[in-house]
Please model this.
Amino acid sequence: MKLSKNKLYSVERVKDGHLTTTELLECAGYIKKMSNGLYVYLNLGQKVINNINKIVREEFEAIGMNEIGLNQLQTADLWRATGRYDDYGKEMFKFKDRSDNDMIISGTNEELVTAVAKDFITSYKDLSFTWFQTNNKFRDEIRCSNGLIRCKEFVMMDAYSFNLDKEDLEKTYNEVREAYKRIFDRIGLKDKYRIVGADSGEIGGSVSEEFIVDTVDGEVEIGHIFQLDDKYSSKLDVTYTDENNNKKTVIMGCYGIGISRLLQVLAEVNRDGNYLNFYSEVSAYQFAIAVVDVKKEEQLKWAEAWYKSLTDEYGVGSVVLDDRKCKIGKKLHEMDTLGYAVKVLIGKKASEYKHEIKRWSSDDWKETDGDIY
Amino acid sequence: MKLSKNKLYSVERVKDGHLTTTELLECAGYIKKMSNGLYVYLNLGQKVINNINKIVREEFEAIGMNEIGLNQLQTADLWRATGRYDDYGKEMFKFKDRSDNDMIISGTNEELVTAVAKDFITSYKDLSFTWFQTNNKFRDEIRCSNGLIRCKEFVMMDAYSFNLDKEDLEKTYNEVREAYKRIFDRIGLKDKYRIVGADSGEIGGSVSEEFIVDTVDGEVEIGHIFQLDDKYSSKLDVTYTDENNNKKTVIMGCYGIGISRLLQVLAEVNRDGNYLNFYSEVSAYQFAIAVVDVKKEEQLKWAEAWYKSLTDEYGVGSVVLDDRKCKIGKKLHEMDTLGYAVKVLIGKKASEYKHEIKRWSSDDWKETDGDIY
Model:
């Protein structure tokens, strides 16, 4: 994206002094608060979310999990069957459609996904399998707080496994647990989270663990995995016949990752003062190239050559070219604030085919005539 | 994905005789109806939707459009400001939150996106720009019909442009119009749609055009583009100062593509009897490899070598290996029904490193020892 042509954001000049991470994300044009607990993801925020989703998809597909898409608008009947239509309390948004049917918009999907899976399970040969999806969830939180950490609407990955028995569930649970570790490492949380035993709360079941990150505002939860056992499958009568033709109840697990919450957690744990830092794979735009003086033809040409090379390789959605007619100080400040993974500065050495480069892992600008990747 | 390990779907043996496209998609395990106007996308359906979204994103980013993510849950105040809280009628899902605030879940987003953009527009230098997003939309349809064509919840791409004046809007409108053509060509609708002038309906504005596909059930609309002019920007007071320091009202366009509707339209226009056919770039799994007899070691080995090569190149989410212990007739029937773009059959010629291949564009199996791609 060329900033001379596209008005991506109007990053406010971030002032000195401490900003909360929510404030920093707002100033930098990642998110915008619309009302209590409701946020819009601006282009930078949406792209980080897309990048996290891509990594989740890759790691889950690699262990044989299958992506699906559940309707967010649901009839109340399934929720009544498990008793959660009443148990869930005021956190659930409930309303009637034009035909006076009771409807909800979902905050979690154990009932619906179990009803869907039931149709595909007859015999032990149909088991086990795990489905995942990522979409927005809705909870009428009484106390929305801390930006994207506790909202009324949030992006969440929810996954559900359907297993033969406890041993089979434990196998899936551990595979997902390992996939979570790979995901959190890849997005920029290596050695920055811990896994703790947890209360299963509204979701229920026997065993559950939380993936926790410690931040300045306390602990925030980024992932939660549950062994549900037969809590939902028994109420919704999901059974199979085993090898000896005996009827057995399916055992379930469920697994969540707070995707929009991760945007804020990543910003929080990797920020450097009022500068954001995103790992290469999740950075909104992986590469940013700033031209010191666009009136100098050799600078603009060398920058555009790199821009073409990088967009050909990584896609136009991965590269920012700052070719605006403005002072280099403003450009550098924006690049640092926005936390692009690889920053490239093209100035007077362009005539010698040289540029300066600064990577996530390094604080210093280094002059080079080599590759940017 | 290896079918010996993953239970992707339980494709019902599609019977002879005519099935509607909705029935065919249900039998083949692409979608599942949950209640009136509410569908779940099973893995195959969700993957086609993901692939369409990827193409939309590529084509839109290439013309400088920026992806964002709007909240689906919205307060009523903005909708009251334009009068549409009442005008929209019973198609809008309305309810109260726990604090007695009037809320809606959105079927379209002119109000919200205009309120967001307003913050970024002061001067003519801030214009023009175009934002897009894809998420689920909600409409309380009185008559849901024809599967994914008219639903209460559906996946839709909605885009909004903010322009200087009518001429600038027309330029953006035409760029988006051309991008639509490229998108529809790439997903499998080349020469299968037409563009007609349309009534602007609830959305409003001056000029609008629909992208129409003719199917057995009549016309179904896959895209709609609008020149909104100042309908929303004047009511929400979105202005800028021009080069002469005069205050001007921003001019807008909006653009929609029915993504989940396209899943059914693609299935409809490219089906061959009860066999589905998806273009390479949108096919749920681009490659499917069936092993004739998994007990023959050379067949399984040759198939697994191809499986590894293709997953290394295209990702594990692009390849199905049918290595189940079942009759080849069942495997072939499933491959044909599900409409994978490239089908590969590995049988007794595996010892000579040969396989048979059938591509979307061809009806015949061809023996080869060459590349599968």
Notes: Chain B has a mean pLDDT of 92. The CA atoms of residues 116 and 159 of chain B lie 13 Å apart. Chain B touches chain A through 67 residues (CB under 8 Å).
